[in-house]
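Hypothesis: this fold can be encoded by more than one sequence.
Test: take the structure tokens below, design a sequence, compare later.
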């Protein structure tokens, strides 16, 4: 792996967001925090308000030793399924770090294959600051993408539901059909495609 060098003792927190939505990429982040600059108040991104997430995201990007974003796109999700796409996004996040961490801590109960030792921690985004940091910056990145998609397709309400299968989103799917960024392997999207094909 040209350009990579292992640094002893560096632990990366890894998390992904966007398994549940019907639209857009699944986004992962890898974060190596600086032990000399701890960030107080980190927790699961879902426990924080949007304003707090943006606040912490800026601090993490500034104070972490290293951070990187990885992603898997809707067509990849449709090809290899959402679980494997989530693992792929996490692998890509680690691969984008300028160094190989010694160890990776991953939120959940499954580990992607990584070029370092890896450990899955259930509810790690609540208990491990580096995983919390990864969950926060991944969530902020994905939410920003949903706001951009909302500007393109305001009728779907992406700014509000962020692509999740809310009543509003399902109603928009029925009314307007499927856009390119929808995940065609997800049941509500398949159903909407079938409905529109039958019209």
């Amino acid at each position: 792996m040209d350009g990579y060098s292992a640094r002893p003792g560096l632990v990366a927190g890894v998390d992904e967001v966007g398994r549940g939505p019907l639209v857009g990429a699944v986004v992962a982040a890898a974060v190596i925090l600086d032990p000399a600059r701890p960030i107080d108040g980190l927790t699961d991104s879902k426990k924080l308000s949007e304003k707090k997430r943006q606040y912490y995201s800026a601090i993490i990007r500034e104070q972490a030793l290293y951070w990187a974003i990885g992603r898997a796109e809707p067509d990849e999700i449709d090809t290899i399924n959402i679980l494997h796409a989530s693992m792929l996004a996490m692998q890509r996040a680690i691969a984008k770090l300028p160094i190989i961490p010694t160890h990776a801590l991953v939120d959940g109960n499954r580990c992607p294959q990584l070029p370092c030792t890896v450990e899955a921690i259930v509810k790690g985004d609540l208990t491990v600051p580096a995983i919390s940091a990864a969950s926060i910056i991944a969530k902020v990145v994905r939410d920003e993408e949903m706001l951009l998609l909302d500007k393109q397709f305001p009728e779907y309400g992406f700014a509000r539901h962020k692509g999740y299968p809310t009543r509003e989103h399902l109603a928009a799917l029925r009314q307007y059909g499927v856009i390119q960024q929808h995940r065609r392997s997800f049941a509500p999207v398949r159903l909407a495609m079938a409905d529109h094909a039958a019209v």
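Residues 129-152 form the longest helix (24 residues). The radius of gyration is 18 Å.
Hypothesis status: open.
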